[in-house]
Amino acid sequence: MERYISAIGFSPNLVTRPIIANGVSSGDTIQIIRPEQNTENAETRVSNAIENVQSTLNGAVNSVDIEVHTISNLDFSAVVEQCSEIIVDGEPPVVCLGAGATDIHIPLTVAATAHQHQIKSTMMYSDLEATANNIDIPALTSRLPGRARDTFRLVAEADAETGISLAELADTQEKARSTVGRHIQSLEKHGFVRTTRKEKSKQAFVTSLGRITYRGMRDASV
Questions:
Q1: Predicted TM-score (pTM) of this structure
Q2: pLDDT mean by block of 10 residues, the chain; 222 residues
Q3: Quick check: is 56 in a domain?
Q4: What is the span of the domain harbouring residue 124?
Q5: CA 55, CA 39: separation in Å to the nearest integer?
Q6: Which one of 13, 102, 173, 184 has the fewest beta carbons within 10 angstroms of its own beta carbon?
Q7: Strand order in 164-165's β-sheet?
């Protein structure tokens, strides 16, 4: 059984489409996060949206469990913390992004990024393409392994298309290939680089997380 987490606003489709695209099944739990509304009209619209989500998903499968979390304190940090608590309270969830008021879905995105390793997967609804797809959130909380920083810089500065071989990394740094191999293994484990085999050599390439990290290193000591 899956556990889904999604913000909600006035549009139920933004909630249901990612869940259905992921493959909702009977017995799944849908945790909906919503803000407390200031007007009766807005409250009615959100309540109707939640009812629509329940009827749509129960129409797609036999039965799903809907849990509603209403957030009244919309201080940004407080909402991030509440979203964080919901994410870690249970089995690794499927987090659905792209729905709900900015007061909720931006803090939910921040919390999902912070808990990237505690999330099963992330779905996002695209307004431009009107589709829901699985996305990879960069593990921005990962720490760059200290002993591998020089090796990482060389990989980050290498040609993005061809990468750099472990032999080149070892020769450039005048280090043993076994040492460079351990560096690359550690960097790959934390998501900063990826490797492929090219004939008898292994090529290292910087990842999206690695590029983001390297940009931060250019102006600051990491």
A1: 0.81
A2: 95 94 93 93 95 92 91 93 96 95 94 92 89 88 90 94 94 94 95 89 92 80 48
A3: yes
A4: 3-135
A5: 25
A6: 102
A7: 164-165, 201-206, 193-198
